[in-house]
Specification:
Layout (H helix, E strand, L loop, with lengths): L17 E3 L1 H9 L1 H11 L3 E3 L1 H10 L5 H7 L9 E3 L8 H22 L11 H13 L2 E3 L3 H9 L4 E2 L1 H10 L4 H12 L23
Parallel strand pairs: 1-2, 1-4, 2-3, 4-5
Helix pairs in contact: 1-2, 1-4, 3-4, 3-6, 5-6
């Protein structure tokens, strides 16, 4: 909520540039309508890190909805995204600290829910690299992982989801029915949209009753 009591995503667009994690990009790869809106507004203002590009390449080998979404990024169609540079050797300690914090949060949740913890040397790497780059550049993180958003905010990085972007677009006059249906279609797949909406009206900024 904004200080004025409106449910909007305006605060998310702080400097007008984003660093997108894998989840939001899968949404954009799947939904052409949503992608077209985002490209028009944030083309060449949305960055992706190397670890996220690698994660998408792995998803693209699958034959489910995530695989089809990830395949969009395998050619030249994703030129509207800006490649973030590799992590500098001097920043490895910072990256490791972010990885450790993400792992700690994951272990805390696992102890409560029994959910399996990610394993492998690249676990949480996409989230950590994205947070690090966003922090260094003063950009906003676009992520659907709650732990990633929590860690981002701990280090002073604003974070949002594709639903936040949709709300911002609607507030600027975009077609609410079109964007809302795109998100509802996403929710019918196994792709995480970052926030579930119950209908298109959930995207309409509305004033809180005091």
């Amino acid at each position: 909520m904004s200080q004025l009591g409106y449910r909007t995503a305006l605060a998310v667009t702080k400097d007008g540039e984003y660093v997108a994690d894998t989840g939001p990009l899968l949404c954009l790869g799947y939904s052409k309508q949503l992608r077209d809106h985002v490209k028009r507004r944030w083309g060449r203002k949305t960055h992706w890190v190397d670890a996220v590009r690698q994660e998408l390449a792995l998803h693209a080998k699958k034959y489910d909805a995530k695989g089809r979404a990830a395949q969009y990024f395998g050619g030249t169609a994703a030129r509207w995204l800006v490649d973030a540079p590799p992590v500098d050797d001097a920043d490895i300690p910072k990256l490791n600290a972010l990885l450790a914090r993400l792992k700690a949060l994951e272990l805390e949740k696992s102890a409560i829910t029994g959910r399996r913890v990610k394993t492998g040397s690249k676990a949480n790497l996409g989230e950590a690299e994205s947070i690090l780059f966003a922090c260094q550049q003063g950009h906003t993180l676009l992520a659907h992982d709650n732990d990633a958003k929590k860690v981002a905010r701990e280090v002073g990085v604003p974070a949002g989801t594709v639903v936040d972007l949709a709300r911002w677009l609607v507030a600027q006059g975009a077609n609410v029915a079109e964007l809302g249906q795109s998100l509802l279609d996403l929710q019918a797949t196994d792709i995480d949209s970052g926030e579930r909406i119950s209908g298109v009206l959930d995207l309409v900024p509305r004033q809180r009753r005091f």
